[in-house]
Structure formats: structure tokens, C-alpha cells
Amino acid sequence: MIAFARLGVAVFLFFLLSIPVQVLAKDDTHRYQALTAELRCLVCQNQSLADSDAPLAKDLRQTILRKIAAGESDGQIIQFLTERYGEFILFKPTVTKKNTVLWLGPAIMLVIAGLLLAKNIKAQQRKAGQSIKLSDAEKNQLEQLLK
Q: Checking phi first, is residue 23 left (phi over 0); if not, alpha (psi -120 to 50) or beta?
């Protein structure tokens, strides 16, 4: 019975000691928190890696932790994750030639809408500025109504 207990303790200690524990410096901890907050969970899509409980998010957090411990910069880590998972992982995607239309599209549509609105307003002002030709009978009738 005692041998079983010792064996159980030994197996427990083996598994406990085999779990990799990485301790980061204070600055690295801030970097880790900032990186996991600015990267999107690919499973949850509207949560950051820091907020997500998805297994993939846990794996990505471990990857970030290992890369920080290995001395990689934030840019290198973000580049690695972007190359592997695409720009969707970034909450703030970069402007590239591929997505320029997406960035400029709303502004272009706003300018076009403004130009059409200005054109419509000018056309209405021109119509309002034109005088209406009344016949003599209509003029007399109007004078009678205004008295």
C-alpha cells in the first residue's frame, strides 16, 4: 500500500516537473499582455487572445510566451503570426495595396454622396429661383385672395 502511494507521488511529481514553466521579466510580462490583447482569437473572432478560452488561443499564447522568452521582438512575433494565420489575426490590419479599396472606400463613397447632395440642392435652388408665369385671370384671382 505504501509502495502504491510512493509510486503515485512519484508519477505526480514527474508530471508536475515536466510542465514547462516560463517566468518572464516585468517588461516582458507587459509585452506579453499587450501582444495578447492586440491579437484576435481566430476561433472566437471578436475576442483577443488574452480574453479567449479557446484551445487555439491557449496555444497561441504559449507560442507568444516562448518567442518572448527566446528574445524575439514584438514585430517579429506579429510577423510570424501574420504569415502563419493571415492579417485576420490583427485587430488593426495594416494598409497594403490589396486592401487599399477597403480603407479608402468609405471616404470615396462619402465624397460621392456629398457631391450628389450638392448637385441636388443646387438644382432645387434653380427651380425655386424661377418665376412662375401667371395669366391675367390668375393674377386677378391671386389679388382677390390676398385682399
A: beta
Closest alpha carbon to 56 in 11, 88, 27: 88
Q: Which of 58, 34, 35, 54 is nearest to 45 (CA)?
A: 54
Q: pLDDT tier at 91 (50, 70, 90 boundaries)?
A: confident
Nearest to 58 by CA among 78, 74, 36: 36
Q: Distance from first CA to last CA of the chain, Å, rounded?
A: 119
Whole-Å CA distances, 136 to 129, 131, 141, 142 = 21, 15, 9, 10
The pTM for the full model equals 0.56
Rounded mean pLDDT, 14-35: 66
**Is domain 2-89 given the CATH code 1.10.8.640 in the classification?**
yes
- Determine the 3-state secondary structure of 90 from DSSP: strand
